[in-house]
Amino acid sequence: MIQKEILLRALEPADLVELARIENDQSLWKFSNRNEPYSKHLLAQYIEQQHQDIFEVRQKRFVISNPNAHVLGFVDLFDFEPLHRRAGVGLVVKKEFRQKGIGFKALQLLIQYTQDYLNIHCLFANIACENQFSIQLFESCGFQQICIKKDWNFYDRGFHDEYLYQKLFN
């Protein structure tokens, strides 16, 4: 899946260092319900299993890359439910590439993939209420806020609300 300056590609063993760096960035844990790092061994096993079909494992991670194969970030489909034709979306762009339209282009590519190959009717995203960049990104791609989950997540010594966003297709 390619758009002008970026593409989505499968995870490869060479992505292990970048994947570990993103997954173990403590500043992102509050947005991904994590509270401890992943080992490189566990992440290497995860990469090895990426050949499994999304219909079997119900999730898929893609690398956001430029044409020179530099890792710009990652985008995930999770909680894939083929019967109900829905999936969750998670997206992270490396700090040095944020605010450059990379997330927008990656999300557009992912949306196109879900339409072309997965027959998705609904994509959803859980976004912390204070994560204004993600809110703007998902809204710019046609996602709509459908509810607020009050005191949903606990981090930074307090409870925080989370929005549920959806994008519906015919």
Features:
170 residues; alpha+beta; eight-stranded mixed sheet; 8 strands; 31% helix; 36% strand
The proportion of residues forming helix, as a percent range, comes to 25-40%
Shape field: globular
Radius of gyration: 16 Å
Class of secondary structure makeup: alpha+beta
Distance between the termini: 22 Å
Element order: H for helix, E for strand = EEHHHHEEEHEHEE
Sheet with most strands: strand arrangement: 1-2-3-4-5-6-8-7
Beta content comes to 35-45%
How many strands appear in the DSSP assignment?
8
Work out the helix count.
6
Quaternary state of this entry equals single chain
Can you summarize the main beta sheet? 8 strands, mixed
Contiguous low-pLDDT stretches (5 residues minimum) are: none
pLDDT averaged residue by residue:
93
Short description:
The chain is of the alpha+beta class and about 170 residues long. The chain is built from six helices and eight strands, in the order ββααααβββαβαββ. The mean pLDDT is about 95.
Commentary on this structure:
The model has no long low-confidence stretch (mean pLDDT 93). It contains six helices and eight strands; from the N terminus they run ββααααβββαβαββ. The longest helix is centred in the middle third of the chain and has 16 residues, at 102-117. The two termini are 22 Å apart. α1 crosses α3. A hairpin with a 2-residue loop joins β7 and β8. With 170 residues, the chain is an alpha+beta fold. It has helices spanning 16-23, 26-32, 40-48, 54-57, 102-117, 132-140, and strands spanning 2-3, 6-10, 60-65, 71-81, 86-93, 122-128, 144-155, 158-168. It has an eight-stranded mixed sheet, sandwiched between helices. The protein is globular. 31% of the residues lie in helices and 36% in strands.
